[in-house]
UniProtKB/TrEMBL annotation:
Name of the featured protein: Molybdopterin synthase sulfur carrier subunit
InterPro entries the UniProt entry points to: Beta-grasp_dom_sf, Mopterin_synth/thiamin_S_b, ThiS/MoaD-like
SUPFAM superfamilies in alphabetical order: MoaD/ThiS
Pfam family of the protein (one): ThiS
Organism of origin: Erythrobacter litoralis (strain HTCC2594)
Length: 80
């Protein structure tokens, strides 16, 4: 079925959309291929986190999203 990828913050601007549905299952390599080169470049940086089914992954390269899961791409938090 499907997995929803959520693009948050500046990653949404790079992707040109807020969310995208992709086929399940989804692993790290599949995620990189699904989001396009600009977002994939950002995802490979340590400062960008990935959450799957509401849990931030300690090792985002271990992503194993299943049907119905939501994968959120979390840009670094800035504040003042």
């Amino acid at each position: 079925m499907a997995i929803t990828i959520l693009f948050l913050g500046p990653l949404r601007d790079l992707a040109g959309e807020q969310e995208r549905e992709v086929a399940a299952p989804l692993d790290w390599q599949g995620l990189l291929e699904s989001v396009g080169p600009q977002v994939a470049d950002q995802l490979q940086q340590d400062r960008v986190n990935v959450a799957c089914a509401g849990t931030v992954l300690a090792d985002k390269t271990a992503l194993a999203a299943l049907d119905g899961d939501e994968v959120a791409l979390l840009p670094p938090v800035s504040g003042g």
